[in-house]
Amino acid sequence: xxxxxxxxxxxxxxxxxxxxxxxxxxxxxxxxxxxxxxxxxxxxxxxxxxxxxxxxxxxxxxxxxxxxxxxxxxxxxxxxxxxxxxxxx
Length: 89
Hints:
Blueprint: E1 2-6, H1 7-12, H2 14-24, E2 27-32, E3 35-40, H3 43-63, H4 69-88
Parallel strand pairs: 1-2
Antiparallel strand pairs: 2-3
Helix pairs in contact: 3-4
């Protein structure tokens, strides 16, 4: 589950949020002024995202293609969507 909270809520309830992430494997999206600024995710998911990013960078290097910032943003969005769909299963 992905829960959205404000930065103020995150500050007030940080310990509770850490427990949700650690024990329930929830993810928390933190917003400030209505815009997403950070996310708290469990370590296993973080490792998967990190490994996917490293794989993506290695593949782009192998292909000899330098992606534009827009292309990288699209790829990162697709990775995030894939992770969300895996977590729902």
